Amino acid sequence: MRKTIAVLFVLLLGTMFLAGCWNSRELRNLAIVVGIGIDKIPNSEQYRVSFQIVNPHGASEGKARGSSSGEAPHIVYTSVDYSIFSALRKTTQKVPRQLFFAHAQLLVIGEALAKEGIQELFDFYERSHELRLNTSVAIARGTSAESVLKVLTPLTTSDATAISSRLKITSEIWAHNVDQDISSIIKQLAGGGEPAISGVRIVDSNSTPTSNLELKGIALLSKGKLAGWMDGRTARGAVWALNQMKSTNVNLDCGEMKNGISIEVIRSSTKVRAHVVEGKPAFTIKVKEEGSLSEARCSIDPGSKEAMLKLQQQLADETKQEIELAVQAAQAKKSDSFNLWAELKRTQPKLWERIQKEWPDIFAGCEVKVEVEAFIRRTGMRGKTFTQPQD
Amino acid sequence: MSKSSAISPTQLFAMIILFEFGTALVLPIGLTSAQNSWLSILLAMPAGMIFYWLLMYLHRRYPALILSAYIRQIVGPYIGLPIGLMYGIYFMYISARNLREAGDLLITTSYDQTPIVIVHAAMIATVIYIVHKGVQVLFRLGEIYIIFIIALGLLSDMAVLLSGTIEIRDLLPIWGEGVGPTLRSAYPNIFLFPFAEVITFATVLPHLKQNQAAGKIGMLAILASSVMLSMTHAIEVSVIGKDMYSRSTFPLFTAITTVEVAEFVERLDALVILALIIGVFFKMTMYAYAATSIVADVFRIKEMKQMAYPIGSTIFLVSIMSAWSFPEHGAEGTKSFTTIQPIFLIYIPVLLFVVQLVRQKFSRPSS
Predict the structure, then answer these.
(1) ipTM score here?
(2) Would you put residue B135 in left (φ > 0), alpha (ψ -120 to 50) or beta?
(3) Which of A364, B74, B151, B169 is deepest in the core (most CB within 10 A)?
(4) Which CA distances in Å does B225 have to A285, B16, B168, B206?
């Protein structure tokens, strides 16, 4: 009997210690950070780090703005310090809750900082166990990261989530941007190439706070420093060269009519081959793409094989031109944003070892051939256009 | 040995797999060739099997004796006793190292506010309890947990595959740095850790129920565990890349954090932590058990379980005091590959084997 009581006592004692975690954190004491922005203070070694935090009251209304509570769906806090981590801790002087980073989805880098170099920014992301390596990254174009994060976006509760979801969607169906995450940026910077990072800018900035954000272009970096931007067709060429093309729309000329035909590219794959020509590396970028006719403002007859073959050739030529534009832009800035180094390292490890140090210069003078094979498989719900050819 | 402490072949199989996984699943192994660690594992496997065969050979000669006891039989009590005792100390040290690895992973990944003493104390208390209960409880537990480990492995592999973060091309070029580094990380590094560590099983083999099956079962377990280990490390490299793999303190953890399936299945870190805790628990318990049984054998203590508390507390203290930081702990481990590990895992076993062969040859005419 005595023994039973003793055992029971010990067990009950145990429950006292087992009831909670040592490391427990209560939800009501956390401030959930969804986006982080980093800027450089001019003429100083310090960073201005901004944290976009979800406002549980503003966000729970279901609608972003105009909710009856009148509270903003998100709040931005900023701190200035020499390291990202100390800025983060300093922010606790302003935030009533503990910052929680496991849901941070976006990192915005200010353009001024990007020009000075982004290399030193990512160590904290690697070392921390709370931040995620699959966080999307964008460069604030022509503005600071702080002002990008402060923009209130329609249709969502937080603009950090809005940018990262936009990055995903537009990269997949319009393909003028790339959705680059931190782990692949680190892979590039550690390996010898340059990461391709999308730009984000504020449009309509005089009507704040209802201004909107827009993804614009892909940054070209040289030695980790922002060197230029690729836009429009050049940017799409870069997406093609990176083998990240999923779907896009290509406009083709239809006889006299400029951009009269829209082709929806529905599938595309890019293969890069590295070879050695007279001791120097050279590359072939091979693209195989499939598309379908999605809009024709002039009259064409898909029934005729000739017309279709001509269209296919036009599509292939256009793709080739775009990729060449991108390659030229990158070579002009000595910025291997297309992962060519990785292919060289895989296939010619010995050569790579030798030229690794001067790679940016060698890349700028490399011969890059582009070969494109295009197929137009379908024409949508109709064959012929209802307008008749006018000749 | 008493019938009550018999181990079945299935239990042996499960235990060897859990033991080989231990920390090798989560930590970077091989050291010299990061990209080819998966290949190095497969290259080191044959030697691991030969080593196991050697242990089985010695076990067949002395089926009722544990490691320290047959060392005394082979080389005589005057040399055998100190060697046996040294094995006991060595096993305690490795057990402490395992505990430290588990503790540091838990603290860096999730329990950043918790003192290491608390984490270690919670684990060592369980270890002491199991060692106190005896070998059969340990092996039965292994039989249950092998299912957990395999389920966890399948689940995380599926998640990684579905999330599409695998870049098989990151494994290429296979011979980019030449054959040298790959072989060097296989021999001696991966052969020593984890393959040659099966020497701890020399302290439980006398408890086996069916002696004949032990050889085949052990080989199968080594084959299965090395294939699974190799696969896991290949996936790690192909997910996070060679550079990040070689800089990571816990590459499997980093690899699993990149998993994101349909924006829904994310943050599977808990699976890795669970796998590590299970693996480390069995590995360190196995070491603690081996140390306890050797100390009990050397000092002729009848009730082995009396030794569970002192050995457990020593492991606990050593785990905290042996290194002031995790990098130092790692450096100590690297150093041990060229210093103490080969002595206990290669030189002494091979020496025992040779002496045994010679003695058999010369004793035959007299018998």
Answers:
(1) 0.71
(2) alpha
(3) B74
(4) 41, 8, 22, 23
